[in-house]
Design a protein that fits this description.
Blueprint: H1 2-20, E1 46-47, E2 56-62, H2 70-80, E3 85-88, H3 90-95, H4 97-105, E4 109-112, H5 125-143, E5 149-150, H6 159-169, E6 172-174, H7 188-198, E7 204-208, H8 212-227, E8 231-232, H9 235-240, E9 251-255, E10 260-264
Parallel strand pairs: 1-6, 2-3, 2-7, 2-8, 3-4, 5-6
Antiparallel strand pairs: 9-10
Length: about 300
């Protein structure tokens, strides 16, 4: 009898222990609210400006990083709490990885500007792939960041290449709406005057941080834009503010889950960059257009 009683007592203890290890189910009202998902990235497209209802512009700097000039420019931007977008050449990334890390650490955006600065419109797909992927890899190796933006050197890119790059690499192609032709080294005051006179809300402003004159022009340029009431955004931030206007040849695809419209850009009619006898410092090729729009593609509307 004692044996039976002992066994019953032992079974009771084991049963109680098993119940104690059963997870406690929280009441439905105690469960934390799920986090809202981050907005989905915009579908890659080609932009030379954005349509915004506030006075935002995007400052962009090509061809760096430059050991001599980019740190000085970063100091100027930091003093004014301005965020910009830097389109980097892969070879310069490999030579200056510390500057790449600083650009990102200070809240700026980085884009791909190819490895050797060639005219993509004159290259086959294999060579274009190498130019893009080698630079993507260099930026990621230097900083851990993978760009989502590409600026083709000289703005030289065909409509087919734009669509292929957007689909194959998931990169938006970024051109510009303001070009001070600073690569011709007209002097700091001229660079400033050209940018201030051409700037409009939604503008993507082109310049080059490899040139001392350009960086020398930035204090007056940035302060002048501020005095005119402009605010600054990275290219991706500017695109996110884009409020497209429908026009002939465009279609609007409504994303009902976000109650927003995505505009399908009309393909560019030409991909031949403007010609010039002047030489770009990185490579002999047609110069960037002297008009406010790149010679190779219109803005994505």
């Amino acid at each position: 009898m004692r044996c039976v009683t002992g066994l019953l007592f032992l079974l009771g203890v084991l049963t109680a222990a098993a119940q104690d290890t059963t997870p406690i189910q929280a009441s439905p009202t105690a469960a934390p609210s799920p986090l809202k998902p981050a907005p989905s990235p915009l579908k890659p497209a080609t932009y030379s400006q954005a349509h915004v209802d506030q006075p935002y512009v995007a400052m962009t700097f090509d061809d760096g990083p430059s050991a001599a000039n980019t740190p000085r420019l970063l100091d100027m931007l930091k003093q004014r709490n301005i965020k910009a977008t830097f389109f980097l050449i892969g070879q310069n990334v490999a030579a200056n990885p510390d500057i790449v890390r600083r650009i990102l650490a200070e809240g700026h955006e980085i884009g791909n500007h190819t490895w050797t600065h060639p005219q993509l419109s004159k290259l086959g797909d294999d060579r274009v792939t190498a130019e893009i992927t080698k630079t993507q890899d260099a930026i990621k190796q230097a900083s851990g960041f993978t760009p989502t933006l590409l600026r083709p050197p000289y703005g030289a890119i065909t409509p087919r290449q734009r669509q292929w790059i957007e689909n194959q690499f998931g990169l938006s192609v970024i051109l510009w709406s303001v070009d001070p032709l600073d690569w011709k080294r007209p002097g700091p005051s001229v660079v400033t005057q050209r940018i201030l006179s051409q700037a409009r809300p939604g503008a993507i402003i082109l310049s080059h941080d490899i040139h001392k004159q350009t960086v020398d022009a930035m204090p007056a340029t940035l302060d002048g834009l501020i005095a005119k009431g402009y605010r600054f955004a990275t290219v991706s931030q500017l695109i996110a503010m884009n409020k497209p206007k429908l026009s002939t040849g465009q279609t609007a695809n409504i994303d009902r889950s976000h109650n927003s419209k995505t505009i399908t850009p009309t393909p560019a009619s030409s991909a031949t960059p403007a010609s010039s006898n002047a030489q770009h410092p990185e490579n002999t090729a047609p110069a960037k257009s002297s008009t406010n729009q790149p010679a190779t593609a219109p803005a994505a509307q």
